[in-house]
Amino acid sequence: MSEHKPPSHDDVIEYIREIEPRTVHQTLGLRITRFAAEGCVVETEVNERLFQHAGIVHGGIYALMAESAASTAAAFAVDVSLYRVAGQEISCSHVRPATTGSLRAEARLIHRGKTSLVYVADVDNDGKLVSTCRITMAVRPLAG
After folding, report:
1. Residue 3 pLDDT
2. For residue range 75-90, what is the model confidence (pLDDT) as tens digits?
3. pLDDT (average), residues 126-139
Protein backbone atom coordinates (compact mmCIF):
# COMPACT_ATOMS: atom_id res chain seq x y z
CA MET A 1 0.00 0.00 0.00
CA SER A 2 1.42 3.40 -0.98
CA GLU A 3 1.75 6.17 1.55
CA HIS A 4 -0.47 9.24 0.99
CA LYS A 5 1.50 12.39 0.19
CA PRO A 6 -0.40 15.67 0.66
CA PRO A 7 0.10 18.48 -1.84
CA SER A 8 3.08 20.69 -1.07
CA HIS A 9 2.81 24.36 -0.14
CA ASP A 10 4.03 25.24 -3.65
CA ASP A 11 1.46 22.87 -5.24
CA VAL A 12 -1.38 24.68 -3.46
CA ILE A 13 -0.02 28.11 -4.48
CA GLU A 14 0.29 26.95 -8.09
CA TYR A 15 -3.32 25.70 -8.08
CA ILE A 16 -4.61 28.97 -6.58
CA ARG A 17 -2.71 31.07 -9.11
CA GLU A 18 -3.97 28.87 -11.95
CA ILE A 19 -7.65 29.11 -10.97
CA GLU A 20 -7.66 32.73 -9.72
CA PRO A 21 -8.23 34.32 -13.17
CA ARG A 22 -11.61 32.55 -13.29
CA THR A 23 -12.77 33.82 -9.89
CA VAL A 24 -14.20 36.94 -8.25
CA HIS A 25 -10.60 37.89 -7.41
CA GLN A 26 -9.92 38.65 -11.07
CA THR A 27 -13.23 40.48 -11.47
CA LEU A 28 -12.53 42.83 -8.53
CA GLY A 29 -8.76 43.10 -8.89
CA LEU A 30 -7.91 41.22 -5.67
CA ARG A 31 -4.47 39.65 -5.23
CA ILE A 32 -3.20 37.23 -2.62
CA THR A 33 0.16 38.50 -1.42
CA ARG A 34 0.92 36.08 1.44
CA PHE A 35 0.21 32.35 1.55
CA ALA A 36 0.39 30.50 4.91
CA ALA A 37 -1.76 28.26 7.13
CA GLU A 38 -1.43 30.76 9.99
CA GLY A 39 -2.79 33.52 7.79
CA CYS A 40 -2.98 35.07 4.36
CA VAL A 41 -3.12 38.58 2.96
CA VAL A 42 -5.42 39.81 0.19
CA GLU A 43 -4.96 43.27 -1.33
CA THR A 44 -6.59 45.54 -3.92
CA GLU A 45 -6.70 49.15 -5.05
CA VAL A 46 -9.84 51.15 -4.27
CA ASN A 47 -11.80 52.07 -7.39
CA GLU A 48 -15.41 52.75 -8.34
CA ARG A 49 -16.11 49.05 -9.08
CA LEU A 50 -15.94 48.50 -5.31
CA PHE A 51 -18.31 51.35 -4.37
CA GLN A 52 -21.88 51.32 -3.18
CA HIS A 53 -24.36 54.09 -3.97
CA ALA A 54 -22.92 56.59 -1.48
CA GLY A 55 -19.51 56.53 -3.19
CA ILE A 56 -17.68 54.46 -0.56
CA VAL A 57 -16.38 50.89 -0.67
CA HIS A 58 -19.25 48.44 -0.16
CA GLY A 59 -18.99 46.57 3.17
CA GLY A 60 -19.41 43.32 1.27
CA ILE A 61 -16.00 43.94 -0.31
CA TYR A 62 -14.43 43.99 3.15
CA ALA A 63 -16.21 40.72 4.02
CA LEU A 64 -15.18 39.17 0.69
CA MET A 65 -11.55 40.11 1.23
CA ALA A 66 -11.56 38.79 4.81
CA GLU A 67 -13.17 35.49 3.84
CA SER A 68 -10.85 35.14 0.84
CA ALA A 69 -7.83 35.57 3.12
CA ALA A 70 -9.22 33.02 5.61
CA SER A 71 -10.24 30.55 2.90
CA THR A 72 -6.83 30.69 1.30
CA ALA A 73 -5.11 30.21 4.66
CA ALA A 74 -7.41 27.26 5.40
CA ALA A 75 -6.26 25.58 2.18
CA PHE A 76 -2.76 25.48 3.69
CA ALA A 77 -3.98 24.31 7.11
CA VAL A 78 -5.47 21.02 5.87
CA ASP A 79 -4.61 18.38 3.30
CA VAL A 80 -6.77 19.62 0.42
CA SER A 81 -6.46 16.28 -1.34
CA LEU A 82 -8.50 14.78 1.54
CA TYR A 83 -10.56 17.70 2.89
CA ARG A 84 -12.63 20.57 1.55
CA VAL A 85 -12.69 23.91 3.34
CA ALA A 86 -15.55 26.35 2.96
CA GLY A 87 -16.75 29.45 4.72
CA GLN A 88 -19.34 28.55 7.35
CA GLU A 89 -19.87 31.84 9.17
CA ILE A 90 -18.59 35.39 8.97
CA SER A 91 -19.23 38.41 11.16
CA CYS A 92 -17.81 41.83 10.31
CA SER A 93 -17.84 45.21 11.99
CA HIS A 94 -17.20 48.03 9.54
CA VAL A 95 -15.66 50.94 11.42
CA ARG A 96 -14.63 53.47 8.76
CA PRO A 97 -15.42 54.13 5.08
CA ALA A 98 -12.83 53.93 2.30
CA THR A 99 -12.92 56.00 -0.88
CA THR A 100 -9.32 56.01 -2.16
CA GLY A 101 -6.01 54.22 -1.71
CA SER A 102 -5.53 50.51 -1.19
CA LEU A 103 -7.21 47.83 0.90
CA ARG A 104 -5.42 45.01 2.70
CA ALA A 105 -7.11 42.10 4.49
CA GLU A 106 -4.95 39.98 6.76
CA ALA A 107 -6.43 36.80 8.24
CA ARG A 108 -4.89 35.20 11.32
CA LEU A 109 -5.65 31.68 12.58
CA ILE A 110 -6.99 31.66 16.15
CA HIS A 111 -8.44 28.12 16.40
CA ARG A 112 -7.57 24.85 14.67
CA GLY A 113 -10.09 22.07 15.29
CA LYS A 114 -10.88 18.80 13.52
CA THR A 115 -13.98 20.13 11.76
CA SER A 116 -13.45 23.88 11.81
CA LEU A 117 -10.84 26.61 11.62
CA VAL A 118 -11.45 30.09 13.00
CA TYR A 119 -9.69 33.19 11.72
CA VAL A 120 -9.82 36.86 12.55
CA ALA A 121 -9.18 39.30 9.75
CA ASP A 122 -8.61 43.02 9.84
CA VAL A 123 -9.13 45.04 6.69
CA ASP A 124 -7.21 48.30 6.47
CA ASN A 125 -7.26 51.22 4.07
CA ASP A 126 -3.74 52.61 3.76
CA GLY A 127 -2.97 51.42 7.29
CA LYS A 128 -6.23 52.55 8.95
CA LEU A 129 -8.67 49.89 10.14
CA VAL A 130 -11.92 49.86 8.13
CA SER A 131 -13.36 46.48 9.15
CA THR A 132 -12.67 43.65 11.55
CA CYS A 133 -14.08 40.17 10.88
CA ARG A 134 -14.29 36.71 12.41
CA ILE A 135 -14.51 33.81 9.96
CA THR A 136 -15.31 30.16 10.70
CA MET A 137 -14.20 27.72 8.02
CA ALA A 138 -15.81 24.27 7.85
CA VAL A 139 -13.42 21.35 7.28
CA ARG A 140 -15.12 18.35 5.65
CA PRO A 141 -13.79 15.14 4.10
CA LEU A 142 -14.04 14.98 0.33
CA ALA A 143 -16.71 12.57 -0.90
CA GLY A 144 -14.94 9.32 -1.65
Report:
1. 84
2. 999 999 999 999 999 9
3. 98
d(C-alpha 54, C-alpha 32), whole Å = 28
DSSP bridge partners of 138: 86, 116
Distance (Å, rounded) from C-alpha 51 to C-alpha 61?
Answer: 9
For residue 69, report the phi and psi dihedrals to the nearest 5 degrees.
Answer: -65, -45
Distance between CA atoms of residues 135 and 132, nearest Å: 10
Q: Tell me the C-alpha distance between 87 and 68, whole Å.
A: 9
- What is the secondary structure of the chain as a DSSP string? -PPP-PPPHHHHHHHHHHHGGGSHHHHHT-EEEE--TT--EEEEE--GGGB-TTSSB-HHHHHHHHHHHHHHHHHHHS-TTTEEEEEEEEEEEE-S---SSEEEEEEEEEEE-SSEEEEEEEEEETTEEEEEEEEEEEEEEPP-
Closest CA to 108 of 118, 99, 98: 118
DSSP 8-37: PHHHHHHHHHHHGGGSHHHHHT-EEEE--T
